Amino acid sequence: MSEKDKGRRPQNIFQRFNHNVGVVLNGIEVSILVFCVAALAVLLITNVFARTFFQSIYFAEEISKFLVMLMTFVGVSYGVRKARHIRMGAFLDAMPPKVEKVFLIVISLVSAIVMGVMAWFSYQYLLNAMEMGHMTPALRVPTWTFYIILPIGFGLACLQYLRTIIKNLTEKDPWQSPDQQSEYEDEQIGGTPQ
After folding, report:
1. How many domains does the chain fold into?
2. 80 within a domain of the structure (yes/no)
């Protein structure tokens, strides 16, 4: 193995764990987002043709609502992992690297706590919706099935912030997110720079 390859491979157990979790989450998030966008496009285009020539698909609105919710809350986690969340980039760039790293750790910790609290409250909301027993008008499925993604999305975002903390504690340079070292770094999709 060359020195260049050694630099890229995770060295300790925390780095390996962080890397493996990232690979799994990346596959799940990207698969869900691609599926949702494709399914939403097909559903809406099909519904336009059906409405024009026959009659509207009666469940299209409910499925669309679910797909948009799924994209939104899985997208929160994806945005955190790719450092596409709101941050004070110019402020951080003006700091020395060690101070920037401390700020990134503190910001990630506070953000992880907020996402964890949001996951808890959305879980309580889900339980409340389950107790109410309301059904959707078209599909006649429990409305709480649409809300399952809320605590999952916030929980995944919390996990991504925790991964950012681990990355900053185990690496020499500051990392904006678990997968993005610098704001100006080329984004990689499927392992190839874009």
Report:
1. 1
2. yes
